[in-house]
């Protein structure tokens, strides 16, 4: 790691939500395990998700990292029932920053650097005040990062809504982005979500000493080259870009809000133990994704028609947004799901297993019986699938998932997808049956399986000692050692 006699002590600040907390904890574990770094993870918590609570409880048991929970302040007077998720996140974090500052200031073991996630970039001035080297961790890919970097330029160049444009949005040096694939805050430029998106992400690219991304060189050669060499993007991203991924969890998490070692989790693994290799399709829409009643019904019938074995993590439907479970993952009970088609559980009992709310995804995806993944295309889930060599059915719902789905299907060619975005039109049972067979049956899915196998091997090589991502992380730590001066110990807060 370097010549320091004492291990570096790095703080990482996470925003609420499993999709943010999990990659931050994973980064922390990587630094501690493979680079001998002392890590303190600061988590701004929402206080409304049982799954979030259990994840943090599990992380706190680790001897490798320290987890400091910072309860988010009450923002009920600043939002209403129509306030969207990104805006809620940004307001919650902004209002809690004074607590973050106090917690860092009171630490006995001084930090050598602070890493913030993509939604906590407004904490970067705190790091500057404490004279700490500071970095932004973007737990997704370089193509998304490039579009986000360039968004202020698009904001000036394009009139009207992005989604109404007839031509793809051109990103210097990168594959263009289809208007329908822009991330959620860009769907409506009149919303506060869009203004928050521009503000919070812009801060990160202007103020940080470096940008870490959960991707790797072989997966995104073109986009990484653009971020490093394109004159327009370089004028915005003045700091180095460090691809350090793909970083994934290995031995957690929870099922139905309980620890991963309970009877419920064992029953899932026992069921998988009885299946033949590569025969089971795993279906999950992540920590926050929900389907409409009609779409949930069509998916159920599609699985039934396919006669392929499956494990489906199902949650109650929502008619008011695909991300409505973002802050409440794991909070429902485990009664018989009445929202599934009548008789579905009985008719599929010999080849299907339904799990409610939340499960130990890492163990399921790594099980030899699992041969494919129907996924919402959150980046955490996407790389967990790739690193387990599993082809995917791409089913994007919200955030940057539509862009991820396009990357998985068209660039990396490790996934298939419905003909029309699931957020635009209900995918009917016959098409679902076709997609399932395409991924799970050897003849149709052969090319997908070969592509994902190659990508898995390149990911393993990147993370190995001497690999591109391992070396990139070493460069980050060398930069921290060079910059670190324990500058904040005399500051009065």
From TrEMBL:
Keyword Metal-binding attached: no
GO molecular function: UDP-glycosyltransferase activity
Signal sequence range: none
Tagged with keyword Glycosyltransferase: yes
EC number: 2.4.1.-
Family, per entry: Belongs to the UDP-glycosyltransferase family.
Name of protein: Glycosyltransferase
Organism of origin: Solanum tuberosum (Potato)
């Amino acid at each position: 790691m370097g010549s320091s006699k004492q291990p570096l002590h790095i703080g990482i600040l996470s925003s609420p939500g499993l999709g943010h907390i999990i990659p931050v904890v994973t980064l922390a574990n990587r630094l501690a395990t493979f680079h001998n770094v002392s890590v303190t993870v600061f988590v701004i918590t929402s206080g409304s998700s049982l799954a979030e609570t259990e994840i943090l409880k599990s992380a706190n048991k680790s001897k490798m990292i320290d987890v400091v929970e910072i309860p988010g302040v009450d923002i009920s007077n600043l939002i209403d029932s129509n306030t969207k998720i990104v805006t809620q996140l940004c307001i919650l974090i902004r209002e809690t920053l004074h607590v973050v500052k106090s917690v860092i200031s009171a630490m006995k073991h001084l930090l050598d650097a602070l890493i913030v996630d993509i939604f906590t970039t407004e904490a970067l001035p705190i790091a500057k005040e404490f004279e700490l080297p500071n970095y932004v961790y973007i737990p997704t890919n370089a193509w998304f990062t490039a579009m986000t970097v360039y968004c202020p330029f698009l904001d000036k160049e394009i009139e009207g809504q992005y989604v109404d444009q007839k031509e793809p949005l051109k990103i210097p040096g990168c594959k263009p982005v289809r208007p329908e694939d822009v991330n959620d805050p860009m769907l409506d430029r009149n919303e506060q979500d869009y203004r928050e998106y521009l503000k919070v992400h812009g801060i990160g690219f202007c103020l940080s000493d470096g940008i870490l991304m959960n991707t790797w060189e072989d997966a995104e050669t073109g986009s990484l080259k653009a971020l490093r060499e394109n004159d327009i993007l370089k004028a915005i991203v003045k700091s180095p870009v460090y691809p350090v991924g793909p970083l994934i969890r290995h031995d957690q998490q929870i099922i139905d809000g309980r620890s991963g070692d309970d009877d419920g989790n064992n029953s899932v693994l026992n069921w998988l133990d009885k299946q033949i290799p590569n025969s089971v399709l795993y279906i999950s829409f992540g920590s926050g994704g929900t389907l409409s009643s009609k779409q949930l019904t069509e998916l159920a019938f599609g699985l039934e028609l396919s006669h392929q074995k499956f494990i489906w993590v199902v949650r109650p439907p929502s008619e008011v947004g695909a991300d409505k479970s973002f802050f409440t993952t794991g909070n429902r009970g485990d009664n018989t799901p009445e929202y599934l088609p009548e008789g579905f559980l009985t008719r599929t009992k010999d080849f299907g297993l339904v799990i409610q709310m939340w499960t130990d995804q890492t163990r399921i995806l790594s099980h030899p019986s699992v041969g494919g993944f129907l996924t919402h295309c959150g980046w955490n889930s996407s790389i967990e699938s790739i690193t387990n060599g599993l082809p995917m059915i791409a089913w994007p719902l919200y955030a940057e998932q539509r862009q991820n789905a396009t990357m998985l299907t068209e660039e990396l060619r490790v996934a298939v997808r419905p003909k029309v975005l699931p957020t635009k039109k209900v995918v009917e049972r016959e098409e679902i049956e076709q997609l399932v067979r395409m991924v799970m049956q050897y003849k149709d899915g052969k090319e997908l399986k070969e592509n994902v196998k190659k990508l898995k091997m390149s990911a393993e090589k990147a993370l190995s000692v001497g690999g591109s991502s391992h070396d990139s992380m070493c460069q980050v730590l060398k930069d921290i050692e060079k910059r670190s001066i324990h500058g904040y110990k005399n500051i009065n807060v």
